[in-house]
Amino acid sequence: MVRFRPNTPHVAALLLLTTLGLGACGDDSATGESASASESSGSNSSPATSASASSTETLTNSTQGTGSNSSSDSETGSGSDSDGTTTGSDAILVPVAHTRELRGAWITSVFNINFPSAPGLDAAVQEAELIEIFDRLEAAGLNAAFFQVRPESDALYPSDLEPWSRSLTGTQGEDPGWDPLAVAIDLAHARGIELHAWLNPYRAKAALQSEIVPPHIALAYPEHAHVYGAYLWMDPGATQVQDHLLAVIEDLITRYDIDGVHFDDYFYPYPTDDPFPDDLTWDAYVDGGGELDRGDWRRQNVDSMVEAVGILIEDQRPDVRFGISPFGIYRPGMPAGISGFDQYEGLYADPLKWLDAGWLDYLAPQLYWPTTYPKQAYDVLVAWWAQATSGGRHIFAGNYLSKLGSSDSWSLEEMLLQIELTREQSDVGARGNIFFNVEPILDDWEGFASILGDDLYVSPALTPAIAAAADMPVTAPEISLEGDTIIFTHGNLEAIRAYSIYYDADDQWLLDRLIPVANNSTKLSSGTWAIAAVSRSGVESLGSVVIVP
């Protein structure tokens, strides 16, 4: 079972903030041992208490458009001149922005690590667990959840392409009687949290003894399903495998209002002493006149998959953020002094190529080592990855939170320091953290979740805008005032994710709160406020000014 510990304040833990100089994001903040993957089985706040300072992101994350635009991130709508409204021809519009930061956690379903806590639970019990998870994420100030919906070429949602996951009922293919993904999306969006669908592209079984049932891909293409180590693995070199994956992703992004598609570090499997048995596709490549060596051919197979997914998402849902969480060391010696597993040769993964080519929106390297490990030092690695960004894309550091308290190297102080070290690289390209896994946040290990919610993440923040959408215009909302209640409307609600509420503090616009688009009103205290619309891609409009007497 997932064990939820009481959220009792930890005074000693909070004092660490003073020692480390940590606090909520403001003007100047951003927005060995190895773990093989991100799943080893192992409001109505007041301005004074909830403010995030305006930053230099106005040009990239806040835009105002006039007229129509065919993009899904361009919103148009004429202002109203009815009594009480503050928009229209007489509207006062101002540029607003704040420090952006992705604050995320992985919710792992394989082996029931996080959700559900055990297979075969009643649907109502499972749903209650999911509600509890999102309540705890909201309390800790997180704004993104990475929910594993395809752990073993199966699904945590109804699909004609893949069977139900055995994580839900204990039996693959058995209908659990509800749709966890649909519920997770609703729970997340109601709390202002992005929901990213986390898929494993090639793993067919995480445990060889488990049963698979139609329409599982390993049954459809058994010639491309290979036992390797403890897993059953689909061959990345098989065209049928890539085509099936693309069909699964297209189904997801067209049927579900997800905010992102996410892969972890599993491409070709982590190597054992035996070679991966892909002779069938390799021989076909050679017989067809292929000239690459086997390593480059395997990398090309993975590259073509990543590129194809990026093109599909750009074409079908450009508001969906596509990213990958690779192994935390790109190659030994990069940067100098770093050593460890070589993913380029071992997994045939080239994440820097994917980022530079613009096939994805971010990388979330799994920096699963503390600062005290000189050959895999967190501070060195996060600085190196941050400078590798290009084209306005981002690095979100993956943090091994489930190691918290396991040794002196994994102290609370270390975890807080890793957040600060990531923030120090915000101007270079590191714009947030993703924690593996969510359990220490649910159970508030060492008071970590309390510190996030009360201090480090106390000020609200949007995630960084998707780079490709940064210049797409967003129309400001129409605002009407009824007493101390403001009511928002917008000409294209389908293209809007939220409203951002700023207040005027000595001629500086500070973010007070974020309102999900499903809500159309909020109460404000006396003062001068500006309300912006936030597109699905994370771009803010100019702010519509309203004065509350």
CATH topology of the largest domain: TIM Barrel
The 3D shape can be described as globular
Q: Pairing-aware structural class of the strands and helices?
A: alpha/beta
Number of strand segments: 19
Supply the CATH architecture of the largest domain: Alpha-Beta Barrel
Write down the domain tally: 2
CATH superfamily of the largest domain: Glycosidases
Helical amount among residues, as a percent range? 25-40%
Cα-based radius of gyration, to the nearest Å: 23 Å
Q: Segments where pLDDT lies below 50 for 5+ residues?
A: 1-21, 23-38, 40-87
> What is the helix tally?
15
Distance between the termini: 51 Å
Structure overview:
With 549 residues, the protein is an alpha/beta fold. The chain folds into 2 domains: 11-30 and 101-460, TIM Barrel (Alpha-Beta Barrel), CATH 3.20.20.80; 58-98 and 468-548, Sandwich (Immunoglobulin-like), CATH 2.60.40. Helices cover 26% and strands 18% of the residues. It contains 15 helices and 19 strands. The strands form 4 sheets. Strands 2-3-4-8-9-10-11-12 form an 8-stranded parallel barrel, surrounded by 5 helices. Helix 1 packs parallel to helix 13, helix 3 packs parallel to helix 5 and helix 7 (239-255) runs parallel beside helix 9. The protein is globular and about 75 Å long. The N and C termini lie far apart (51 Å). 51% of the residues are buried. The model is unreliable at 1-21, 23-38 and 40-87 (pLDDT under 50).
Q: Which features does this protein show?
A:
549 residues, alpha/beta, TIM Barrel, Immunoglobulin-like, 2 domains, 8-stranded parallel beta barrel, 15 helices, 18% strand, globular, disordered N terminus
